Fold this sequence. Notes:
By secondary structure, chain A is an alpha+beta fold. Chain A is built from 16 helices and 16 strands.
Amino acid sequence: MTSQIVIDPITRIEGHSKVTIHLDDRGEVTDAQFHVTQFRGFERMVQGRPVHEMPSIMARICGICPVSHLIASSRACDEIMAVEPPPTGADLRRIMNLAQMVQSNALSFFHLSSPDLLFGFDGEVASRNILGVAKANPGLARDGIGVRRFGQQIIEWLGGKRIHPSWVVPGGVDAPLGAETRDRILSTIPEAIAAVERALAWYKSELTSWEEEAAVFGSFRSAFMGLVDQDGNVDYYDGLLRVMDADGHLLADRIDPRTYQEYLGEAVEPWSYLKSVYWKTLGYPDGVYRVGPLARVIVAAQMGTPRADLELDEFRRRLGRVPASSFHYHYARLIDTLHCIEKIDELLRGEDILSPRVRSTGGINRNEGIGVSEAPRGTLIHHYKVDDDGIVQWANLVIATGHNNLAMNRSVKQVAQRYVKSAALTEGMLNRVEAVIRCYDPCLSCSTHALGEMALHLQLIGPDGAILDELRR
Amino acid sequence: MRDVLVIGYGNALRTDDGLGWHAAERLAADPRLAGATVLQRHQLTPELALDISRAAFVVFVDASRGPAGALSVEPVEAATDATLSWSHHVDPSVLIALSRDLYSRAPDAVAVSVGVASDAAGDRLSPVVEAALPDVAATVARLVAERGGAVPATAAIVEPASTTAEHGRA
Lengths: 473, 170
């Protein structure tokens, strides 16, 4: 008789999900699935809304990374208006996007994943939380608070509030940067850099102790995708797509991301509200690729800032050019964060950063717009079609977590097959299944949107377990 | 007045769950709280521990599951475990514990809450919870007047340990 183990809910991630692990007659794992159990449906909700409302509406998708949606949505609106933000407006958008990266990466590493790294995956469950970290390693916990606060404060200082700021608008931003705010941000940068470098030093000192987990935490050959600039360095705002295979060969390079539909397919499975995005030429489900911090540090030639480049060199010396394991998202996330802080510093010191010219204006000049940027978890695509009055007719969102869905499912199965033994289940076994998902830092509130009709199967089940009624769409 | 921090939190798009959010708006303009810091938040996050460590008296304002419109005041003690800190939001008692463990300060703290009538989608409070808002403001002002005046003997003021130290293994 076959049976299954259910982990519900998955903890320390953003959103709601569960994992089912399927066992054969001998109790061996035959399959495992990562189910995203929440449904949002913003692609449908926005139909009929004026396009200028889109950034504000789309930011409501998520309370963790609203700025990412503001950026991608505003860029799609720029296209529809056929305008380009003034250079200073674009740089100010970049700064807010980088601040968003910092605060979200800090949440993932310090608050959600560090308990596993600090106490071990078999550690006392009562300690594996932020209070446990605060007691065992207060310096690490303080740095987590400090780094996340750094990013949140920049968002608040620029946008007026830290969650759902409305400062980023179609055409640019709605107010220039003042010298006082610039100087205030600049004054906080040295400590933010120091905190991330301390975390990196600690992480690297412990790296070898996680080798066993790294060998099976989503360790498989796949492609990686991210945005790069004209020099091939990482770009978070308006780069070109680069896709690298497991051997370091480029599957595609400097693709205009607005042509994403030529390369990326979107599949829906009946057991999850999270769609699976795949590389078309490799087909479904073989076209697995990964996005996010690990992909960014893999596909980029360099990060493009001095401290992060030194760390990237060391990362490559330790792990190779294309590390196979998703465990290394943690390491990459810290390098990513360091780079973002350095980049904020660089942009704030730009000659024209206080220019009052920060917004271009325009009407409805195109019926379609695609905005692409890097969000903390990876490449984010907003695609809208509007009528001549600017009323949204259709929208498609390709969210970072959707790009990673196939990889997450493969990772869950790999970890379950290595660690889960049905004869003697332990909390540590199940925690590893959850922890491999946390490597990707999935944002499920962001990613549960359907392209067109979502397959839906409703069952009304009576108290005796009998199906009383059934509805399929 | 010693350093007073008021944190009103909740989801302003889920009717009465936004009680703390609406209360913070009112309290920020209340002359009885002049000099206090009033923060408006969707939820409590670990970063607030730093703000809390800098205060001598903290008031959390939130919605609760009690009888609709009923106001209650409860002391907040530092948590001994972190059962509510599995994700990116935390409980008031966890924040007090974090402040104590990370910054060596556990300020005097209370939670002022009002029972909800509804948490359905909507950006307005129900009439019964709306009617409780003046009482919330008066209660917070009274607490601040009564307890915001003297630093309790237990609230040791200690600078956080150096953040330049390298992180050690637990």
